[in-house]
Amino acid sequence: MGKIAFVFPGQGAQYTGMAKEICERYPKAMEIVKAASDALGIDMEEMLFRGTDEELRITENTQPAILTASAACLQPVIESGIEADFTAGLSLGEYTAHVYSGTFSFTDAVKLVRKRGKFMQEAVPQGVGSMTAILGMDREEVLNVCALAKSYGIVEPVNFNCPGQIVIAGEVKAVEKAAEIALEKGAKRAVPLSVSAPFHSSMMAPAGEKLKAELEYINLRKMRIPVIANVNGEIVPSESQVKDTLVHQVYSPVLWEDSVRNMIAKGVDTFVEIGPGKVLSGFIKKVDRNVTALNVEDISSLEQTLKVLKG
Question: Which residues carry out catalysis?
Fold first, then answer.
């Protein structure tokens, strides 16, 4: 086995009951959930295990909920003694990667992402912006489509997930027009995403400014594990760059495919997705089907993953 990367999911991966099995079996995982409740003054156990889809879809709930569920699922992996060589996360998941790396405490992170969710929601009034996944087009084609639709308003590629899957975001009319042009020019599908704002577009700049002010209060520690940043797909070079990359990340495209390729180039052949869902595993296999993609979200996936990793 080559090198291992732990990767963490972002918004959209949430579901009722996430991390429940692991929390019932592992006291340290349950401690994470309690720590989130104490830090935020909300009943995180109720939200994770019994929250409605509607509740979990509200961005300022979604972000701390996914971070908490992922950090809880990480506990038994840490207890098993397995360490990653690299870590990364999709959008919000980058914060979980920093918690794993030790850059900041879980308590600081969970408070921060709740505010991040709030800032992102406030940056653009509901109904003004949208996001759509364009399937079956490459980067150049999607950039071209956005350029052709820009007379209708802001529209930009914001998530380069894997070959043939690029998400665009911006003002509703412009996104709809770009999707229409994409289909005319040979895209397989254009799938509108059920999100409440145009995440990672330039329209999120006000959220970046507010986040920057909040990050001033966070104490950073030394990264134990190299973290790959969404904004450029490269290792964050030092603690002094962490805040900058997280601020820019809010209103910059997520270069997930680049991040995965970079980790593979650095010798990673095993990716472990830790937290709800298997979205990242799907993207990773589309980048390179020869790598191993494992996941940890419940007891059976945990046992299966530990069996593979411990050989």
Answer: 91, 200
